[in-house]
Amino acid sequence: MSSVVSARSLRRAARETVSGLPREFWWLWTSTLVNRLGGFVATFMALYLTLDRGYSASYAGLVAALHGLGGVVSSLGGGVMADRLGRRPTMLVAQTGTALSVAALGFVHHPLAIAGVAFLVGMASNASRPAVQAMMADIVPPEDRVRAFSLNYWAINLGFAISSMGAGFIAEFSYRAGFLIEAGMTLACAIVVFLRVPESRPEQDGKNMTPSKQEAVGLGTVLRDRRFMGVVGLSFLVAFVFQQGAVGLPVAMGAAGFTPADYGMAIAVNGVLIVALQIPVTRFIQHRDPGRLLVISSVLAGYGFGLTAFAGSVGLFALTVCVWTLAEIVNAPTQTGLVVRLSPVHGRGRYQGMYSMSWAVAALVAPLTSGVVIDRYGAEWLWGLCAVVGTVAGVGYALLMRGLPAEEAPAGRPAAAKADVEVGAA
């Protein structure tokens, strides 16, 4: 009897998790999943350059840095495009550009050419993120946004987990095949957007908005928004901590005598937990105070990595991964929802672009910092630094979230609410 009740409860929970979201959201979610299922290059790029092409580890690091720099440049550019040209055109341009540049990366051989194309890949692949997040904010009612962002984050991690497993097998057959498969999957993502995802950018017509107000939201507006820029700064600190799972942790484990396979087993816990827990945890947090959630997740992330200083076995490393992964599960949808809450409707692209840039900059800074700290002072100092940074971020969120503006009233999506949104079919 209890098993029947449990099964019914699970089915009801699943229905409540996915029900009530617009059809356009699910097509956008599908395009995200398709895109991440083909995300092979990020997984085996370093191996391709060092093992297949014979370049040094330093050169592979330079290429990775240029890829990240491209993401920094395009985060703001993609946000501006999303507001000016529209969400859908920005995604189509970015995804088509990603497909072409990734395919080209499989055929270029000169070091300068590889570095240049890697920069273009970083630009193109990051340019669509502000548009995707802005579109979700456009089409999903306020009370459902945390749930929608969580489902999208779940799709990203599910696709990445599957593609990571497949990347090793594909690399053994042909690295070039991996590049071409990713290009094909990214192009398929663009086709889904072209055929099924309508434009959602709020209209700016003379009936509802004066010309001065239409032009009121620019990058200067974003930079002058003190509360939001404070959130961006704190987001950078949190992103710096989370980046250590990919940059500081493997280096520290290697220096301690653990093998790449050991690191693989420990970090795999991150993807497994996100896929398993993201949806149920979101059901628990979606209507709770975002400020409190961000304080808790920031401190939990910092001390989760801080505990790594005491890990001496693969099992203990995996346990620390469990701690900061829970922080990641709470932080990701909550922070994205907060960005939407602080963004003016006609500036969502720019605001999301600035937020995306904080993560892109962290992806550049984290490898440099972790390497210097580990080399000069030892890994224990890096994990101590993470604990301090997480604590600072938590205190910052506690201060910034005082007097947080009330969230916009839920739109029942009657005719009056729909009037502000373009629903142009493909």
UniProtKB/TrEMBL annotation:
This protein's record includes keyword S-adenosyl-L-methionine: no
Keywords: Cell membrane, Membrane, Transmembrane, Transmembrane helix, Transport
Residues of the Major facilitator superfamily (MFS) profile domain: 24-408
Localization, UniProt: Cell membrane
Record InterPro entries: MFS (IPR011701), MFS_dom (IPR020846), MFS_trans_sf (IPR036259), MFS_Transporters (IPR050171), Sugar_transporter_CS (IPR005829)
Lipid bilayer topology: Multi-pass membrane protein
Membrane-traversing stretches: 26-49, 61-82, 102-121, 151-171, 177-197, 228-251, 263-281, 293-326, 354-374, 381-400
Record's keyword annotation contains Transmembrane helix: yes
Protein name: MDR family MFS transporter
